[in-house]
Design goal:
The longest helix has 14 residues, at 269-282. This protein folds into 2 domains: 2-124 and 286-317, Alpha-Beta Complex (Quinone Oxidoreductase, Chain A, domain 1), CATH 3.90.180.10; 127-265, NAD(P)-binding Rossmann-like Domain (Rossmann fold). It has helices at residues 41-49, 118-122, 125-136, 154-165, 177-185, 199-206, 219-229, 249-254, 269-282, 299-307, and strands spanning 2-5, 16-19, 29-39, 62-70, 82-85, 101-105, 109-111, 145-149, 169-174, 190-193, 211-216, 230-238, 258-261, 291-295, 313-317. Strands 3, 4, 5, 6, 7, 14 and 15 form a 7-stranded mixed β-sheet that branches. By secondary structure, the chain is of the alpha/beta class. The chain has 10 helices and 15 strands.
């Protein structure tokens, strides 16, 4: 099969597209003929810093395609099923989604609704499951005001839609008009430009007693705004900040704030299964972000696009 792969960590130039063996599913596993692969920030970060466990690593956690083979213990009737895949390149797994075939545990290949395309399925996985966990790890959200930072990003946009579906009042922040349109299309009840000097006041108009939960993409940059609008005993779930932030610990303590740091790859299997089930139930209702796509031969360029902050989702077409 053809696959993008790397043999040592480094820049995107360590990626090459080669012919490699086609993997076989083991007990409890399925093999998926990948049609479209999604690219996430962790793909290029892992490629940059972590050596493969074996001779090489095919990157890519997310993808969509068709089950074409099953291992012992898996219902043969799954062959031919259209699926979306999550965590294909989890540590210890060599065959990520950026190749013609990937092998994953059966539970990590989730039926793709008939109304959804492979593009839609390849954009679920990491972003949508991260959003779900940030929203629901601390209990129900129905009837509560929720603030989602970065409502036009892959995680933030999914969080807006999932929170609306869960019955929350959803306020989101963005940086400009183009992103505001994306957040509104996901169902946000209010969209605020976080660069406005009165951003906190605007948020408080929609949540006079403060928001109960914040899904935060940049805690270091936004902590002052977060504290200005968070209700006492509120929760901040932060998932993507690489900064060395100085946090106002005493103020966070006085407000009894719960800080939840989320790296989706490290949560328990029980929580992962809950997130996957939550996303699967909502998948057909999730918004479609703009797509930047690349052929498999340009997998390195796809990684670069994500690293450079491409708006929406970056996908790789698998021939």
């Amino acid at each position: 099969m053809r696959a993008a792969l790397y043999r040592s960590p480094g820049g995107s130039d360590v990626l090459s597209v080669e012919d490699v063996e086609t993997p076989e599913p083991g007990p409890g596993e399925v093999r998926v003929r990948v049609r479209v692969a999604g690219v996430n920030p962790t793909d290029w970060k892992r490629r940059s810093t972590t050596a493969p466990d074996g001779a090489f690593q095919v990157p890519g956690q997310d993808g969509a395609g068709d089950i074409d083979a099953v291992g012992d213990g898996v219902e043969p009737g799954r062959i031919g099923e259209r699926v979306w895949v999550w965590f294909a390149a989890r540590p210890g797994r060599q065959w990520g989604s950026a190749g013609q075939y990937t092998v994953v545990p059966s539970r990590q290949a989730v039926r793709l609704p008939d109304a959804m395309s492979y593009d839609d399925g390849a954009g679920l996985g990491v972003p949508a499951m991260t959003a779900w966990h940030c929203l629901y790890a601390d209990g129900p959200i129905e009837g509560r005001p929720i603030l989602i930072a970065g409502g036009a990003g892959a995680v933030g946009n999914a969080a807006v839609a999932l929170a609306c579906r869960g019955g929350a009042t959803v306020i989101t922040t963005v940086s400009g008009p183009e992103k505001a349109v994306l957040a509104e299309s996901a169902g946000a009840h209010a969209v605020v430009n976080y660069r406005d000097s009165d951003a906190a006041e605007q948020i408080r108009r929609h949540a006079p007693d403060g928001v109960h939960r914040i899904v935060e993409v940049a805690l270091g940059a936004n902590v002052e705004l977060d504290l200005a609008v968070l209700a006492p005993r509120g929760v901040i779930s932060t998932y993507a900040d690489d900064s060395l932030a100085d946090l106002p610990v005493r103020r966070l303590m006085v407000a009894n704030v719960t800080l939840r740091f989320v790296l989706i790859y490290g949560i328990s299997d029980v929580s992962l299964d809950a997130a996957a089930a939550g996303v699967a139930a909502a998948a057909a209702d999730l918004p479609r972000l703009p797509v930047t796509r690349f052929p498999l031969a340009e997998a390195a360029a796809a990684h670069d696009a994500v690293q450079q902050g491409a708006l929406g989702k970056v996908l790789i077409d698998i021939p």
